[in-house]
Amino acid sequence: MATIEDVARLAGLSRTTVSRVINDQPYVTEEKKEKILNAMKQLGYVPNSSARRLRSQRTETIAVLLPRVTNPFFGRLIESLEEEASDYGYQVIVCQTHDNKKKELDYLNLLKTKQVDGVVLASLANDWKDIEPFLASGPIVLCNEYMENEQISMIHIDHFQAAFDATLHLIEQGCRHLAYTTGGHQTHITQQRKNGFLRALEVNNLIFNPELEICGTLNVEEGRKAFYYIKERHPYVDGVFTGSDEVAAGMINAAAQEGWNVPGDLSIVGFDNQMISLLMVPAITTVQQPIDEMASKTIQVLVDKMHNKNHSMEHRYIYPYELIKRSSTGINAAIPTASK
Amino acid sequence: MATIEDVARLAGLSRTTVSRVINDQPYVTEEKKEKILNAMKQLGYVPNSSARRLRSQRTETIAVLLPRVTNPFFGRLIESLEEEASDYGYQVIVCQTHDNKKKELDYLNLLKTKQVDGVVLASLANDWKDIEPFLASGPIVLCNEYMENEQISMIHIDHFQAAFDATLHLIEQGCRHLAYTTGGHQTHITQQRKNGFLRALEVNNLIFNPELEICGTLNVEEGRKAFYYIKERHPYVDGVFTGSDEVAAGMINAAAQEGWNVPGDLSIVGFDNQMISLLMVPAITTVQQPIDEMASKTIQVLVDKMHNKNHSMEHRYIYPYELIKRSSTGINAAIPTASK
DNA sequence: TTGTAGGCGTTATCAC
DNA sequence: GTGATAACGCCTACAA
Q: Which chain B residue shows the shortest CA-CA distance from A46?
């Protein structure tokens, strides 16, 4: 592997001059610049990134921590984050935590070991007290996940309000016996959604049966199970707020197999407006987050912090969402099929 | 940021000894080891990764180049590759090429600049002659993509045979007028699939109308368009081999809206056995690739090359696939609805 | 405009 | 067992 030294020798000049050419700095005559460029080409010289990093103390790399890329929401998010980061000249390392506390901390260590300049946290398995110390090693920005805390910038939608709106929509469609499903890992987001759901019931003088909170539900298969739980244990349920289009899809799929009519017998709301929500029959009512805008702002805030080491204020950016009403919830909710 | 020097000073020992402790090397008395560990803890010392990389000339990092993570097949693949790599102590950088030649070459440059020790190529936008020079900088393994070439190891299924089997299945179900859709970027894979498709027609003495090759089709929306193209221009078509479950899903969705019966009026085969293929009504007949096994072998081969710098032979690993028959193809294919 | 020299943080070599 | 010292490849005062 050719080094800067080799190039200098071949060109009959010093390392300094070569370095100047590499970094497009002034004070090099065209003639010598030419000579050096030739030497570089001839040797197939490429600057060694580890050496540059060590010297400059910067990696031009960002770590993105998220539960899993196979969740389409995070797939979209990473795609968007990567594109934006690339515009700023940053490379992205995707870190899948699988909602595992240890993995999350291991990946945060990339910051300590100076393998990345900053972190986007789209996963949050640990308590804040365990995350906070990492701030000393570099900037961290929260995207999607959030909490009550002002020590860190956050980019997210209002999940309380989104759940409230979605639940209200179910109630407006005539649902009176509502169930609620929540994902595998309990975070502030799921808590907020639950609160929004409960609040919507409350303002409509509906009472909530705690047995209708179905936990650990985060994919299609578990959506199917959730349906059977309702069918077998609480068949009077007429509406469900799921935190996920995949769960909603699983429920619809199982419901169809069992001869239940959606939304006639059961109205279902998903989350994230994934492709699947539009393809299911019936199409799924869902909440859409402005992923691209959130990703863009996230990188922008993080890059800003990485550049102005100190004095950038922490700030919370709350983005608007959209409740997309489709056929999985409907006014026919009041007309159950005979079979039910 | 504390350095090894700081630790040494605080512990009253030399950098060398500290280094020994960091790397679990012998020849350090328990007593001094203890002292050093304490000093490290006290200072919050973490070894600097850039310095280690420079010194060791290794990054413990692998780049995975793929078109896009939002394609569920690649989502699954990256999840699996990452897990396997992590078992070998390697970190993964996900590089989305979007089938762009320049991006692909830019990312391959990570190898030249020594930012990664090896590359998994699951995208292949460039000609081999443009990729080949990078082999001088480090090992590259092809996963999913492949070609006729013996200079590099490849892990993949037999796409010719898979397409052949899928097409044969359509024919066995009574389809006689077959169409074929292909993704955005033309690669060896798409060529192989096309050949397999054509060969199946040939051995059954069916002729192929070139107008029924529908190109540039790689997502749900384009699947919908493909359906309308068939409906409006070639309504006699009774079977389609798509290279993608998403395209198949889009076609089924549009077909349902237009009152076509699948498979009665049109049988459809997808590819990859994505979640959606099971959720659509009808469920989609599809080809399943053994993603985990392929990912595992890919990393294994790559790691082996990274360790035995020179003498590991190139080898092609062909994995078995499975044609999963579901309701989107069926013997009712011969009974079109009146509306068609 | 160009070159010299020192150091970024580690680890390997060799001497003690 | 332990420690000086010399790289790894690059950048940047500072000197010329």
A: B113
Q: What is the DSSP string of A25-72?
A: -S---HHHHHHHHHHHHHHT----HHHHHHHHS---EEEEEES-TTSH
Report whether pLDDT(B232) > 70.
yes
* Closest residue in chain A to residue B62, using alpha carbons only: A93
Across the beta sheet with A178-181, the strand order is A213-214, A178-181, A239-241, A267-269
B256 and A82 within 8 Å at the Cβ level: the answer is no
B224-235: average pLDDT: 96
Set of chain B residues whose Cβ sits within 8 Å of the Cβ of A93: 91-94
Nucleotide nearest to B15 (CA to C1'): D3
Strand, helix or coil for residue B240: strand
pTM: 0.92
DSSP B147: -
B17 touches strand D (CB under 7 A): yes
Q: What is the pLDDT of residues B61-82, one digit of tens each?
A: 999 999 999 999 999 999 999 9
Between CA A47 and C1' D8 the distance (Å) reads 13
> What tokens appear for A223 in the block?
């959506």
Q: pLDDT digit string (tens) for A187-224? A: 899 999 999 999 999 999 999 999 999 998 989 999 99
User: CB contact, 8 Å: A331 with chain B?
Assistant: no
B14 touches strand C (CB under 7 A): no
Q: What is the mean pLDDT of chain A?
A: 92
Residue B310, pLDDT > 70, answer no
- The per-residue pLDDT for range A224-280, each reduced to its tens digit, is 999 999 999 999 999 999 999 999 999 999 999 999 999 999 999 999 999 999 999
Q: Nearest-5° angle of CA B217, CA B219, CA B225?
A: 60
**Closest residue of chain A to B3, computed from CA coordinates:** A113
**Coil, strand or helix at A17:** helix
Token digits of residue B6: 């700081």
Question: Is A70 an interface residue toward B (CB < 8 Å)?
Answer: yes
DSSP B135: G
Tokens at B267, concatenated: 């049988």
Measured between alpha carbons, how far is A282 from B2 in angstroms, rounded to an integer? 59
Residue A219 to residues A53, A230, A334, B106, Cα–Cα distance (Å): 41, 17, 28, 36
A264 in reach of chain B (CB within 8 A):
no
B18 CA → C10 C1’, Å: 11
